[in-house]
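step: validate -> pass
step: tokenize input -> pass
step: predict -> running
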Amino acid sequence: MHQILVYADSLTWGIIPNTRKRLPFAQRWPGVVEQTLRSEQIDVRMIEDCLNGRRTVFDDPFKPGRNGLEGLEQRIEIHSPLSLVVLMLGTNDFQSVHPHNAWHAAQGIGALIDAIRRAPIEPGMPVPRILVIAPPQPGDPKGPIAPKFAGARAKSEGLAEAIKRVTLEKDCPFFDAGSVTTTSQVDGVHLDADQHMHLGATLARVIGALLQES
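step: predict -> pass
step: emit ->
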């Protein structure tokens, strides 16, 4: 069985825009990937580690535990052996409490890649390959989260390109989620159910190809 760890935030957790509710597993993109690959006789288990508000390497001044670097090496230990780790982070680096730009978020992704590769896994277990996904650029935030993401669209300009440069330096596969979906028109930040389905169907092909290469 291929175990795949998805390390991400609320876009992947499946929060329903403008609510505190969550889409069921079958409608979240990792669930779509798992079901699609299983239907193609690829034995895979998607392990979701998706925390609302998670940054790449930055602290949330209001909630503890949102720094994605903290504890990441231990999560690799916990879930090993892993065939693949999927990183999809960056959106929360642009919350209004932060001054960060796309370069900062991309450097954060680079630090996470390094942490995954140095995790002290058991002898003989594989160092997992890492697929980095750039999240779609935030739109104009609406509803209750508007103050939290004020200015995010401008600060995140060029995120996909910045992350891609880091993945080239680190020799990691890269995919731009913004090439197949936008963020929700409801809140401008998260993904609607149909966007999860479309992204999941696309990523099933990407991930399936990576598993076949390995």
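step: describe -> The CA atoms of residues 67 and 143 lie 25 Å apart.
step: cleanup -> pass
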